[in-house]
Amino acid sequence: MQIERIFDQENKIYTLPKTNERRTIYLNDIALETIKEQIMMDKMRILQYGLDRENVALFRSDNGLPRRPKFLNTELHKIKIPNKHLTSHIFRHTYVSLAVEQGIDKDTIAKQVGHANTKMIDDIYLHVTDKMEQDIADKLHSFQI
To answer: Under a CB-based contact definition with an 8 Å cutoff, are residues 88 and 72 in contact?
Structure first.
C-alpha cells in the first residue's frame, strides 16, 4: 500500500508526507481486510451524505474532511485499562517494538513509519522488549565455550 499524501488540518490541503516522498507500507492480510471494509463503509457514506468522490481519505468525518487524530484519541480515552493511557501514538510505539522483535532492520522500520533516518528509532523507540530480553538470557544461558 502506498502513502502518497497527508492532510494538513491547519491549511485544509493535502501535501506530501514530511519526508517529501511517497512511501510503501506493508500490511498483513488482517490489516488489508480491515482497510477494505473501511473503504466499503466509506463508499456507502459517499452515497448517503453526497461526499466528494475525489476525496480518498481513509477516515473522514460526515463533512468529508479527514478525521483528526484528536477524534481517535478521544475514543481511545474511553477504553479503561489499568495503568495505561491509550493514545494513537501507543500503536506506533507497539508497531516499532514488534518489528524490532521480529528482526526487521531499522532502516525498513524507519521508512515504514515515515522517518527520514533511524535516529528517532535509536533515540526513542529502540529498547529491549521483554521478549528480546528473554531471548538474550536464553542465548547467554546456553552459551558454550
So the answer is: yes
User: In terms of residues, how long is the chain?
Assistant: 145
Per-residue pLDDT reduced to its tens digit, 90-144: 888 888 888 888 889 999 998 888 888 898 888 776 666 677 788 888 888 887 7
Question: What would the grid cell of residue 55 be?
Answer: 476525496
Which residues are within 8 A (CB) of 77 and not within 5 positions of it... i.e. 6 or more apart? 85, 86
The answer to whether 46 touches 63, Cβ cutoff 8 Å, is no
Distance, in Å, from the CA atom of 96 to the CA atom of 112, rounded to the nearest integer, reads 9
Q: What does the DSSP 8-state code read for residue 90?
A: H
Q: Which residues contact 35 (CB under 8 A, 6 or more apart)?
A: 1, 27, 58
Instruction: Please tell me the pTM assigned to this model.
Output: 0.70
